[in-house]
Every structure is written in C-alpha cells, then in structure tokens.
Amino acid sequence: MTDKKINKPVDPAHLTELEQKHVPMIEAPELVLTGQPFIVKVTVPHVMEQSHYIEWIKLSMHGIKLGEVNYSPSDTSTTAEFTVTIPEEVVAVKVLEQCNIHGVNVCGDCGTKSVLTDLIAVASCNVHGLWESFKRIEVMSKIQSEGKPCKWE
C-alpha cells in the first residue's frame, strides 16, 4: 500500500490514547460467502481540524486494494463503507497457502471449504502517519454438494 512506516497497536485489547484516535476500527461479518456482497465499515475516531486530520482510509485483502475513501479537514466523519465481494478463487488460493497436513476447514455435512483471511484497513493521519488494523473473517465457498446448507461447529 505504501513505503512509509505503518503504526500498529502494541496491545489491541488495550489501546493507548494515541492509538484510540488513529487505529481503524473494522466492522464486518464474521462469516461471508464467496460471490455474495457484504458491507465493511471502517471508522477512525479522529477529530478533523485544518492542522490535524485523517487524509484517507484504505481497505485491502491479500494485497489487493478493495477500496479507498479520501478526506479533507472540513469533513465531519471519518467512517468509510465498502461493499466487498470475495471471489471463489480466494478459497482456492488460500487452500494452497494452508498446511499440507491440516488443509482448510471442511464442513462435515456437505464438504464445502472455508478459509480464514484478514481484511486490512490503513488510515493516514497528516500529523501521526499511517495506522493499520485487521479483522479476521471466515470465507466459505458457496459451492455445496447436493445443495445442503452447511452447519459449522
């Protein structure tokens, strides 16, 4: 995304005051199906002033840019909404990245595969630089044998 140093929270469960104002907060479903659009909401709780503001928020997955929202000091909100659709190929690609012994999660009822992946949000503050966070989601293949719905334990 960029060549600049990216700040990440030292302890995501206990953010410092500086981190609380700059680390992007990602809201997304825990489980999504390939090919079905879903909403990802990214918020940076930062005050917008002429001399200190959020310049942009970017969302990516596997190094692929999913979206970007640019801001100016006059904006009153630093919340970005992205509509994301993950293609079936992501499950196939992630299968290759998984352990050759343990593989990927496979539903016992229908044999459908799923993978865990990260949505990554980066925000740019004109004073304090780049800030990153991630949210792990499960991506389930929509291809199911015999059309049965999956029951994940």
From TrEMBL:
<keyword id="KW-0479">Metal-binding</keyword>
<comment type="similarity">
    <text>Belongs to the desulfoferrodoxin family.</text>
</comment>
<keyword id="KW-0813">Transport</keyword>
<dbReference type="GO" id="GO:0005506">
    <property type="term" value="F:iron ion binding"/>
</dbReference>
<feature type="domain" description="Desulfoferrodoxin ferrous iron-binding">
    <location>
        <begin position="16"/>
        <end position="104"/>
    </location>
</feature>
<dbReference type="Pfam" id="PF01880">
    <property type="entry name" value="Desulfoferrodox"/>
</dbReference>
<protein>
    <submittedName>
        <fullName>Desulfoferrodoxin</fullName>
    </submittedName>
</protein>
<keyword id="KW-0249">Electron transport</keyword>
<dbReference type="InterPro" id="IPR051233">
    <property type="entry name" value="Desulfoferrodoxin_SOR"/>
</dbReference>
<dbReference type="InterPro" id="IPR002742">
    <property type="entry name" value="Desulfoferrodoxin_Fe-bd_dom"/>
</dbReference>
<keyword id="KW-0408">Iron</keyword>
<dbReference type="InterPro" id="IPR036073">
    <property type="entry name" value="Desulfoferrodoxin_Fe-bd_dom_sf"/>
</dbReference>
<dbReference type="GO" id="GO:0016491">
    <property type="term" value="F:oxidoreductase activity"/>
</dbReference>
